[in-house]
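Need a sequence for this fold. Nothing fancy.
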């Protein structure tokens, strides 16, 4: 778009009392897009031109009228097309980096250090060997807050008590071969805490519970053979609670559903 039309758009906007942000809201676009129209760096599409004409109460002819000849307009469009082609095809042969940019200010850089994307509203996304980082249009870094996991501390503290209890029972009573079951208790209690943290029944460690029951009852009664049936509770339990978790979470991609798959970079 030539400077003559750009100046006209700016003049009409000010005459109607619109700020760039107010006009952008009225058209459903970004303020940066309006700013580029008025700097002749970009042109409104057909729908936006129609909306502008209606907002300013002028005809499209008067809105787009220019003293440029057809040849001058063609030459200008040819130059812009060539500039756009160069920007999109720009490749650094030494670093094998690729740069893509359009006339709206959207920018993509793909290189050895990762992928960097910047949109016309100022927001950015960077993906590289150090992870993922997003920056909003106000320059604020968006990052996932690390959750304080009580279950980890509970399991750690209980494991310390399990060691102390195992040594005391072993030295004082001599039940070394029985007391080792204590080492399963921290994980059992920790899984109960995780149920509340994640709001998921499936976070409970049913195999550990069945193992504790199986070993404890079998050692006390000697009924090792029939007690193995307690492990049948494992598939029964998860076949019931997993659909419930999925139903209450509404999706399988939320934080609660995928928390087990997350890996914290500490």
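Here you go.
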């Amino acid at each position: 778009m030539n400077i003559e039309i750009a100046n006209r758009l700016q003049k009409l906007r000010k005459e109607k009392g619109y700020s760039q942000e107010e006009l952008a809201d009225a058209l459903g676009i970004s303020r940066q897009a309006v700013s580029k129209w008025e700097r002749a760096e970009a042109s409104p599409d057909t729908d936006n031109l129609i909306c502008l004409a209606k907002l300013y109460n002028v005809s499209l002819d008067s809105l787009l009228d220019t003293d440029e000849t057809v040849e001058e307009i063609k030459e200008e469009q040819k130059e812009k097309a060539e500039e756009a082609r160069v920007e999109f095809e720009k490749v650094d042969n030494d670093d094998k980096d690729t740069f893509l940019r359009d006339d709206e200010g959207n920018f993509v850089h793909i290189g050895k250090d990762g992928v960097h994307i910047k949109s016309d509203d100022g927001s950015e996304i960077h993906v590289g060997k150090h992870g993922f980082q997003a920056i909003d249009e106000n320059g604020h870094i968006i990052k996932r807050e690390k959750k304080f996991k009580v279950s980890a501390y509970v399991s750690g503290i209980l494991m310390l008590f399990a060691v102390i209890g195992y040594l005391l029972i072993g030295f004082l009573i001599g039940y070394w071969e029985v007391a080792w079951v204590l080492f399963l208790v921290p994980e059992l209690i920790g899984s109960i805490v995780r149920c509340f943290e994640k709001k998921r029944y499936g976070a409970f460690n049913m195999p550990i519970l069945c193992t504790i029951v199986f070993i404890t009852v079998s050692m006390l009664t000697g009924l090792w053979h029939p007690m193995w049936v307690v492990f049948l509770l494992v598939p029964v339990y998860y076949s019931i609670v997993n659909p419930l978790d999925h139903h209450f979470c509404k999706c399988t991609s939320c934080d609660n559903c995928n928390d087990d798959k997350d890996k914290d970079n500490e």
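For context: The beta strands are 91-92, 97-101, 107-111, 114-118, 124-128, 131-135, 141-142.
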